[in-house]
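Per reviewer request, we include the raw input and output of the structure prediction for the construct analysed in the revised manuscript.
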Amino acid sequence: MLTISQLAAYAGVTVRAVRHYHAKKLLPEPARDHSGYRRYDAAAVVELIRIRTLADAGVPLSRVRELLAADDAEFAAAVEDIDRRLRAEIRERQRSRSRIRELAAGESLALPPEAVAYLDRLRELGVPERAITMERDAWILVAAQLPEQIPALMAVKRAQVDTPAGLAIYLELVEAAGWAPSDPRVPAFADRLVSLIEDAAGDWEGYEPGEESTFDDGLAALLDAVFLNAVPIAPQLIRRLEERGWRGWTKLERVPLPPERPREA
């Protein structure tokens, strides 16, 4: 006769597992002997090994008792049902793993490859990560609304930053993005930015200001809000643009300036 420790060792489980199977009514619990110990026979070892084998195969403990008592046909049918459930669980876990891999991919989770490549190009050009984060958030919004337009839009953006004039505008804006509105450099920078935009507009291959006008007004307003919230001097820049005949930011468009009022004699 075996003690519970010996039984567990023979079956390759822990004493805790044996007690758990007792609690689940899977393994009969023998009465205590005159010394106060429970003693197990060879049949208990065989039964425990069968329970362990089924549990190790993924059979839920709630089904183990059913399988232990089943005949051959019932056992085969039950195993097929369990196998079907396990396959479904494996597919769900594989989907979960795919989602985890996507999360690990960072920007690839919410952005198409063209946008990720554009952000990587900004990093190659030495653009600070805070500016890239703002770009990323803006393009996530665009990709969610206009996924089919992302390749063309990214081609435009790559063309801008890959020309000296376009890169100069971008890097100057990035540098100034951290200034306070009261910074004395802001007025001169705003004028210089507008001049750079006007000078460079014709040099950006395939681009004309206002090309992003395919954005509806709601999306443009949302993107403008990203800019206004992230750049303290943004309102001043937009105001200077308006004074020089430009409207908007995301949908930058040239508008006629009002005629100058004649001076009084």
